Fold these 2 entries.
Entry 1:
Amino acid sequence: MNQEIVVSGIRSTGNLHLGNYFGAMKNYVKMQDEYPCYFFVADYHSLTTHPEPAALKQNVYKVLAENIACGLDPEKVTLYVQSDIPEIPELYLILNMLAYKGELEKTASFKDKARSQPDNVNAGLLTYPTLMSADIMIHKGQYVPVGKDQEQHLEMARNFAQRFNHRYGETFPEPEAFNFGTQLVKIPSLDGNGKMSKSENENATIYLCDTDEQIIKKIKKAKSDQGPLTEFSEMPDYIVNLFDLMQLVSAKETVEHFKSTFNHCTIRYGDMKMQLAEDMIKFISPIREKTISIKEDTALIQKIMKAGKEKARESASKTLAEARKKIGIHFYC
Ligand code: TRP
């Protein structure tokens, strides 16, 4: 077991999709055997967009269930809900004193949100990076398995850690992005435009909760054409995408078979899509069913949440006590 602490937050909104599975989840599952890991559902962060209370609760259960169904083992990692750890908002408050308005306003994610929801540019949105930094620093996290879109937030976390250390003495490591294994898998969307994504192009994204019928429908609709007219011609992007997806879930021979029919102009995309849908269903349906059975077992979910909360608070309260003491907020000892 390595010593470095791994921390990552999972957004509590939106459905997990194939891209999340091959991008993040597989990484998490591998890390849990090699590092002390703290993984949590970032429910406070979701409040920036004012979700419906009933939906928030269901989403938290769902995200936990999905993550466990994908292979996260609550016995190995500390799996908890952000709002169960009061030490996080306390450290967040402290870090806000080290975060400057100017740098927060310059953050790309803030500017995007301010543009996309101009009627709700709240302070939580502005200080999103400080809350995220508190999430990480509360466990003295060093490695943060997140995608490129979070790099700027991590850079800010490093700045806050540095400023704290400089002012109050060495306390926090500087967190950095972490990807297990270097190869990044590309999970293309089904319409030939970019990657699968949580918020965009729902019909071109395969979610871990999709029914068999939805999977078939989406794959059938994926962009294709009449097939190549000359042998060994160059594959159009959207066909490469279908092969990329097939590579993830189908047997090697199946992929080879369809490649060879492509090269010899005998490919029938209808058949290829049917095969892809069948293999996709074989891959997704066990995860979906497991998610449903965990999610319905409220007692089990709550037990897992409570155990995670205890473990997380043990680490969080230690860090917070140290930070408070260094700042001078310790009056009774
Ligand atoms: N901002 C992250 C995202 O949008 C979620 C997140 C919140 C997070 N707190 C974190 C990720 C702490 C890593 C560490 O995906």
Entry 2:
Amino acid sequence: MITEKEVTSTLDHIHDGFKNRVNATLYQRLSHLRKLEKALKDYEQELIAALKNDFNKSEFETVLTEILPVMLEIKYFKKNLKSLMKAKRVRTPLPLMPASSRIMHEAKGVVLIIGAWNYPINLTLVPLVGAIAAGNTAIVKPSELTPHTAAVLEKMIKETFKSSFVRILQGDGDFTSNLLDHPFDHIFYTGSTQVGQLVYEKAAKQLCPVTLELGGKSPAIFSRTVNYDKAVKRLIWGKMVNAGQTCVAPDYVLVPLARKEVFLESCTRYMKQFKVENLNNQTKIVNRRHFDRIEKLVTGKHKILFGGKFDAENLVIEPTIVEIFDQHHALMQEEIFGPVLPVYFYKDRIEIRKFYEKSPNPLALYIFSKDKPFIRDTIEAFPSGGVLINDTMMHLANEKLPFGGRGTSGFGNYHGNASFECFSHTKSVMKQVNWFDVDFRYFPFTDKKLGFLRKILNFFS
Ligand code: NAD
């Protein structure tokens, strides 16, 4: 493992890089983004192999959920960076005239990006693209739970960028905790809510701004009026991608009791159609601790509707749907983060509220309905990081939509323009002229001036 001395010298280098403007101009930023794009192409096969090694992730999923999102983010900035970097003129109020006003985006400085293991390329490189576009230098700390991917990322970044611009540092939780004692200008953290709190505490000591991309229990709420066939197909896909180890996976599903039969019919169809014949070809649970944790959640009063096989030796869980009978079941006590989907058949809206209130402020809220008032009322009644109607997870693919949580699912947003904002300081710049000056605001504050000030106050109130 890297020594404290090496960490300090790496960070000094990166701070110097920012001061020496290694990534300041439009030309530099675009050229760095192009280099990253090329590196990703060159390293694609190595990255696919590394993820296969880490938790048996398939090539299809790696390309779709890891590499493609980074490429699309780079494409967005190649197209929009010039206009994003331009200062925006804003109106100046009459009493301040003839001054002019504008808003500039200034790079924050040295950014620390701490990633989670479940999408180890996406969750480190998508924020890195935003940090680069906004003119920063960066340290990236990938998760230690996907060591093969972290090693390839480290090699790729070392070959691609100067040591004064971006570096990958590898280490576990203790290492990261110590890293947070060093000065940074922004910390971008993706991971669990518990560790997010620790990161926030450390950042507070240095008054360092933080983005926290955390987890939670994202519900899928069905109404009576929906195309059940399509809805269930999208629901099951969203739950089973990456073996359910996705921050925005539908965590649990609430279906009207009156639609139980049609819901189960569609489930039967798609659980069969999506079945991986050989479980060894399925994405694994990342380690034994997580496997045991998920297995323990399937206890108590419930009915297994589909699946239910737990293969501890190979760390594989068969896609499983479980009927639960109230919100107190073990599966409702924490984020599941695995291919187990609890379903509750509800009788009225009060029951939906009971489930929501057990884990409020989810990262995503999925509504399956054709009923406009139902959709509107559900969005208004249940605050969430984001909402997707009639699908799962695909809202992340729209770079025009800021992505982030609220409350326990985190704060701050990224993706596209939101990433640029996240990694920039918004700086107000006003310019006054010298050829015109009103004496009114200067000393001495005479009664005549006070009288005039009162008139202005009355005028505006
Ligand atoms: P984690 O919090 O255990 O680890 C994430 C990162 O934090 C790792 O790099 C790890 O080394 C580091 N870390 C661990 N202990 C630390 C400490 N004491 N101080 C500082 N850093 C420390 O999370 P995880 O298990 O890798 O990820 C799973 C969680 O992440 C789930 O809750 C999931 O919902 C959430 N998640 C959220 C998003 C999102 O975009 N909102 C995306 C993916 C995952």
